[in-house]
Amino acid sequence: TDGGTLTSAEIFGSGFEGPDHIPVDFGVLTGPEASAGVTGPITVESSGSNPALSDAEIVFTPVGNSPISVQADDQGQFDLDLPSGSLPGHVDIIKSYSNASGEITALDALQVLRIAVGLGPTWGPAAPENLIAADITQDGTVNALDALAILQIAVGLPTAHEPEWVYLDQTADLSSITPTNVDYQTGAAVTAMDGVFSVDMTSILLGNLEAV
User: Fold this and answer.
1) Is the residue at 10 inside a domain?
2) What is the mean pLDDT of residues 178-190?
């Protein structure tokens, strides 16, 4: 009240030798069953199993035609039933996330908050893939709202920004991505030959910086 500094005795009294906090136990977080994803480089094969795509929706849009969508099975296998011959188009993948997998934690929220205030993650400079994962609100910038959404997910609270997996062309140029310019295109251009195609992609779980 006199405008002076606080002493350690005034802060801690006689019961603490240093800072402390009330123990918090969120228990075991549960959620709907979810298939696991794979973070990082993957190869999408239309003629085989794809562990990274288990239960995902595969969308192939032929040039000049409407999208064709199918659901992959739990092994990531899918059949678009494409016609014979050469068919250029664009493939995109839609895959949701459940907090039952526990891949997004409060540490991810901390890393996002560090980036939002101009610091790097605790491991060093953020790579473009880290910044993509950090922008869970997908508004093009890494800010405190992203950290809040990730923390809500980590502790099992409802959030307006549900996490999801995004899949990018592995050859995409991400060098222009910064914390204030998180701009990228999902999916990849492919050419199916007699209904078969293979493409290298990068999978990123929005909200999960620690694994990128």
Assistant:
1) no
2) 97
d(CA 93, CA 49): 15
C-alpha 110/C-alpha 142 separation (Å) is 12
pLDDT tens digits along 102-111:
789 999 999 9
**3-state DSSP helix/strand/coil % of the chain, to nearest 5:** 20, 25, 55
What is residue 156's predicted lDDT score, i.e. its pLDDT?
86
- Assess if residue 15 is contained within a domain: no
- Give mean pLDDT, residues 71-98: 92
CA distances for 28 relative to 22, 99, 149, 173, angstroms: 19, 11, 19, 40
Total domain count, the chain: 1
CB environment 49-75: b (16+ within 10 A), e (fewer): ebebbbbbebbbebeeeeeeeeebbee
Query: Which residue reads 């809040």 in tokens?
Result: 148
Residue 106 lies in a domain: yes
Does residue 167 fall inside a structural domain?
Answer: yes
For residue 206, what pLDDT band results from cuts at 50, 70 and 90?
A: very high
- Residue 44, pLDDT > 90, answer yes
Q: Which domain holds residue 59?
A: 34-205
